[in-house]
Each structure stands twice: as structure tokens, then as C-alpha cells.
Automatic annotation (TrEMBL):
UTP25 NTP hydrolase-like domain boundaries: 12-138
Domain named UTP25 C-terminal: residues: 149-326
GO BP term (any one): maturation of SSU-rRNA from tricistronic rRNA transcript (SSU-rRNA, 5.8S rRNA, LSU-rRNA)
InterPro entries, sorted: UTP25, UTP25_C, UTP25_NTPase-like
Organism encoding this protein: Castanea mollissima
Coiled coil (residue ranges): none
Any one GO CC term of the record: small-subunit processome
Taxonomic placement: Eukaryota, Viridiplantae, Streptophyta, Embryophyta, Tracheophyta
Subcellular location: Nucleus, Nucleolus
GO molecular function: rRNA binding; U3 snoRNA binding
Protein's recorded name: U3 small nucleolar RNA-associated protein 25
Statement: the UniProt record of this protein carries the keyword Coiled coil: no
Amino acid sequence: MLLQYHYNGVCSRKSIKLYCDFYSSDLIVASPVRLIAKISEAKTFKEKDVDYLSSIEVLIIDHADVIAMQNWSHENTVVEQLNHIPSKQHGTDVMRIRPWYLDGYAKFYRQSIILGYYSNPDINALFNRHCSNYQGKVKLVCEYKGVLPKVILQVRQIYEQFDVDSIADVDDARFDYFVKKVFPKIKDSVQGGIMLFISSYFEFVRIRNFLKSQEASFCLLGEYTQPSDISRSRLWFFEGRRKIMLYTERAHFYYRYKIRGIQNLIIYSLPERKEFYPEIVNMLDGSHNMSCTVLFSRFDQFRLERIVGTAPSKRMVTSEKGVFIFC
């Protein structure tokens, strides 16, 4: 079933027929956004339902890393809707239904395949919570060499590790470290051209609000920033009329902006996509007295290993040292 722009399906008897009715389809090809829309309709209108999700036997999540750049909560919501007992019969011959479906055990027989360029805590959580096949699970683990050789500039990349006890406290600990250790240096410096690269939009909003409270000179470049505001922000930052620029990973994912005028790069949170790291650091090309500071914790190992390599990342997160330098 093709559900990116249409509401129909794919039948595959002796030939393929595109755009069948949901309940006559053997295959559903859908984006999470469209499925969320159908689930919302079913909750709003009594005559609507998503019972066609109850009989899914094979789930394939392709390009999970790209979906993670959108809204991963949609993926969780969709998977939670799979293999429920249908609300209506839909002309089904009850005598042909397998007993474990009627007993509510269908999810334990579903095969789930997640494909992606990398893994992250959100993808891992879905894998651990919702992939429940009774025969077990298999995960392919990659050994990364890192992307530091792709940084073509002779710039010192200073990795500063902050302490945190649990993954639930990572965001607060990162913010506290920035406020107490990093921002005072920015505030006291007369040099402009400071770019803060931020992976999460929620972190972006938090830093934006903090800079407002400090009456700092800054501009914004996020995924929701209007095109006219983007052009103005890039110009003001390049001309030195704004001291700080906030730049999000999703904005870079969608638009790949080349930011000019960066003198001091602060990577507040490491990018999910490893290729973004050299792209961002290489934007320092042409600057004077360039510097690059990266904040990380032991809970950032997924991202860290893709950038510095699997073996170095393990040493970094277990070391008692707080600062690591790459040139």
C-alpha cells in the first residue's frame, strides 16, 4: 500500500495492482507522517479505524536515520498501534484466524527489521521495547574509524567531558556545564564569530532563551527560521553585527548552509550524522585564531564513536581525564 500521498494499497496475487483498498492489500508502503494522520482520524471519527495495522506480519523501517531527523515519536506511535485486536470484523472468516492473533500474541510472531546508516538511543529504545519476536533479536554492530581525517584544517579540536550520573540528566548537565564553564568565556571575550552548533531543537530553544536572558548579541539559524531571517542572520554574523550564531543539525541536514565568519566553533552537542562534523569544522576555513570546542558525556558514545572512532571513544568515556585534544 502506497501511503505517502495516497490512501490505497498494493495487491500481489499473480500480478501487482497498485492502490488497492487497505483490507485487500498485501503490502503497505507508508511514511510515518501519513500513518499518524490516519491514526488521528481513527481516534476522531468513529467510522474510521486502522485495523489494517493489526495483521502486520513483517515490519520494515527503512532509512531509520533519516526518519530520526524528522520526528521519531511518530515512529513509536505507529509501532505501538501494530498487532492490536481489530475493532471490527471487516468480512474476515474468523475460523481462518490463527489462535495467537485472537489471544493477543501477534506481536511476538511479527518480524521487525530496522535499517539505517547508524543507531542512536531512540532507535535502540524502539528495538528493545517493541521488537518482541519470540525467537529473539539480532543487532549488527559497526566498528567506526572516525571522520577526523576529513577535517582539512589545522585546528585544535578540544573535547571537554562533563560529568553526569544518568541519561535522564544529560540535558540538564550539559546546559549547566555550558552556563558555568563555557558561557563566561564567551561573555568576557571581545572576539565575535562564535557559532554554537546544537543537535536538538529543544536544546536550541533552551540556549536561545538563556542568551536572551543574558542580553547577549546573537542570531538564529534553525529548521523553523524563516528564509528572510536566515539571510539576515547570516549577513549580520559575517559582518560582526551579531557575536553569536545558533545553528541546528536539522537546519544543516535540510539546507547544508555554508556559514562565513566563524572564528570560534562550539559544538554544544555532537551531530548524529558523522559527515556533518567535518563539514561544520571545515567552515572555520579563512578564519584567524580559529578554535573548536566540543562538549560530550559518557552517554554520547554512539555519536562520539562515529566521529573519533570506536576504540578512541571507549577510552575517552572511561578515562578520568576531562579534556582531549585532536589536531
